[in-house]
Design a protein that fits this description.
This protein is an alpha/beta fold and 202 residues long. The chain has a single domain, classed as Molybdenum Cofactor Biosythetic Enzyme, Chain A, CATH 3.40.980.20. The chain is 40% helix and 18% strand. The chain has six helices and seven strands. The protein has helices at residues 35-48, 59-64, 66-85, 104-124, 137-147, 192-199, and strands at 27-30, 52-57, 89-94, 132-135, 154-160, 163-167, 180-183. Strands 2-3-1-4-7-6-5 form a seven-stranded mixed sheet, with helices on both faces. Strand 5 and strand 6 form a beta hairpin. It is globular. It starts with 26 loop residues before the first strand and ends with a helix.
């Protein structure tokens, strides 16, 4: 539509334009299981090498008992706190093996537990990241509304082509003013997530 109206496309916002002077690391949270997300996560991990700390929440362990799930989440929070504080970017992701139940209801229950685990992680996190990228449609919604307590946010532009960048300035939200990236599971090339993280690296 913009091409038909002769409107020049608006380029993605840079870290400098966003005033990313905060010394803490960036946080990527990935819950989507679509093949493109998994491919993007592989590229991110391969390309980032020592510039990225990865915490994997093993789904089979999250499902085994509430006590073990709580321990895994607490360990991920502690590790993320330490790494973010020293300026390291952190990826928190669910294990990539898709576990389904015996029927639709049980599969839904599994999805609910996994999604809640990512929410619990973000709710327990106290260190403010430089930014948050939420990978996956449902993940993005849960992290915004439940993890960060956003009621209303403003779309400030694009973080990457077709990838919205939000900001919530509400005092009641967690980390007001934080750049928040809604990165749908099937959007972007295989390198898109890595290129964004690399571009926003301090």
């Amino acid at each position: 539509m913009s091409a038909r109206l002769a409107i020049d496309p608006i380029p993605p916002l840079t870290a400098k334009q966003l005033g990313m002077t905060h010394s803490s690391g960036g946080l990527i949270i990935a819950g989507s299981y679509v093949p493109k997300t998994t491919a993007q996560l592989i590229k991110l991990r391969e390309g980032s090498k020592g510039n990225l700390t990865v915490a994997v929440l093993e789904v089979n362990k999250l499902l085994s008992s509430p006590e073990l799930a709580n321990d895994l989440i607490s360990e991920a929070v502690q590790r993320a706190e330490e790494e973010l504080t020293r300026g390291q970017d952190v990826l928190v992701m669910t294990s990539r093996e898709l576990i389904v139940g015996e029927d639709e209801k049980k599969s839904l229950d599994i999805g609910t537990i996994v999604a809640q685990s990512l929410v619990d992680f973000l709710q327990q996190l106290t260190t403010r990241p430089r930014y948050i990228i939420a990978k996956g449609g449902i993940t993005s919604s849960d992290m915004a509304t439940k993890g960060l307590n956003m009621k209303r946010a403003r779309i400030v532009g694009q973080a990457s082509s077709g990838v919205p960048l939000w900001r919530c300035d509400e005092a009641a939200s967690k980390f007001p003013g934080l750049p928040y990236v809604v990165f749908p599971g099937n959007v972007g090339s295989e390198d898109a997530l890595y290129e964004l993280v690399r571009a926003w690296r301090v």
